[in-house]
Amino acid sequence: TRLSALQAQYKDNSLADEMLWLQAKLYLKENQYQRAVDNLAKIVRDYKYDILSDDAHFLMAKVLEEKLNEKEKASTRPRPANGSGPCAKTQSIRNGCQRRSARWEAK
Question: Which of 14, 22, 66, 67 is nearest to 40 (CA)?
């Protein structure tokens, strides 16, 4: 797709995570849940200190649980190596990181 071509061309651009996010949202609209999870996982892995990382964690858990029926994967979150981050004190996405992603429920 054109968005994939832009991602490849501008992979070091400051908006690269936004392109992954947009593509994940498009995949969700097309019911391509695994592809959406793959994009969200890239955001979590490659942009873990970006503000979209929390939203990607939450949305990825929601898709895994509700669309792909992978509740075990959805219920745990690996801690950052240095023990920091917004959810460092919890392993549960649903319990510890949901507060920040309440805007997902509103959309």
Answer: 22
- Residue whose pair of structure tokens reads 């959805």 in the numeric block: 74
Two tokens at 22? 């947009």
Rounded to whole angstroms, how far apart are CA atoms 45 and 47? Answer: 6
CB-based contact 30:1 (threshold 8 Å): no
Q: Helix 33-46 to helix 51-66 angle, to the nearest 10 degrees?
A: 150
The residue among 58, 70, 67, 55 whose CA lies nearest residue 21 is: 55
**Global confidence as pTM:** 0.67
4-18 pLDDT tens trace: 887 788 778 888 999
